[in-house]
Amino acid sequence: MWKEIEAAPADAILGLTEAFKKDKNPGKVNLGVGVFKDDAGTTPILNCIKTAEKKLVETETTKGYLPIPGNPAYGAGVQKLLFGADSEVIRSNRAATLHTPGGTGALRTGADLLKKFKPAAKVWVSTPTWANHKGIFTAAGYEIADYPYYNAETKGVKYDELIETLEGVPAGDVVLMHVCCHNPTGVDLVGEQWDKVVEIAKAKGWTPFLDFAYQGFGDSIEEDRAAVEKFAAAGIDFVVASSFSKNFGLYNERTGAFTIVTPSAEETAVALSHAKLTVRVNYSNPPAHGGLAALTVLADDALYEQWIDEVAGMRDRIKAMRAKLVDGLVARGVEQDFSYIKEQRGMFSFSGLSDDIVEWLKVNKSIYIVKGGRINVAGLTSKNIDYVCDAIAEALKA
Ligand code: LMR
To answer: Which residue, by CA, sits nearest to atom 9 of ligand 1?
Structure first.
């Protein structure tokens, strides 16, 4: 049957890694996919996870199925991170959490669940957004609409246009927003800007769908969840797709969560019953290992402290490499102002490099950057930073 069918294009992000692996240039640099790397260029297993895994192996007694929403203690641990341990949302049972295969699994679970009850709803996504967002929601049958977000001139958010657009989103539509460390731009809404967004969501009745994949990579676990707390305090319906890929380094364990918040415990119970049906016909129940490892860390005070330190270490390394990249370009006489890269948050730098430059760097220097100019800053190391700065400086002069 495949004879008449054309091959699909490579994935915009993961396809770059496939091309990178085939590249024979020993100096090649992968600044594509968003995975943390240490200064030696490896993606480490966090020490807290190593310890947790040892504990798990010793104490685990079964590989029997988890319940459809996963281990209830995992859900409780996720909720403490999302809302804070003293949150009213937790006390009043207004939230239900399902352990999902990664953040992507959470996004798809949420997309399918909301589609069932709002079949005509559109999903609104930021311009630009993570390359896979449109794919996930299109696959779930949604029509996609765009809201203005990144301002390439000011390197900030197009706040007024964003607000105007959100005011016009019809009730029942879904608005997908990045809680922190916006992917790909690294530019976030702050404080009162979020208050305004929450106020509009409440007044207009659209459903906020929060994508929270980088908790801890902005300022801290607590500060990064500020927007989630604001939505929670509003007493409205919203959902959160969260991920432990980045902050626990559990990329290949596919460890994420889908959390539903409603105005009452009764509504949340109903929503959870339907989410369970959605999961059952999709992947049945979640993979256990990553979630149990993360839970082991969250449940142990010493491991939790170690985790907080390790997240801070990752965050600080990325910030340091931002500065080295910007300073390295200045030192090479590059006239274009890249100082905004130092202000961007999270793993990525929306570099401002054109697609032509991105292609030139791949073809001539074996430096892999996502189309649109998104650089994984965590891919820069003391070994490759000079090579990358030299290459960008040369590309800009070419
Ligand atoms: C990224 O944006 O690079 C990561 O979230 C990995 C992925 O799945 O695309």
So the answer is: 13
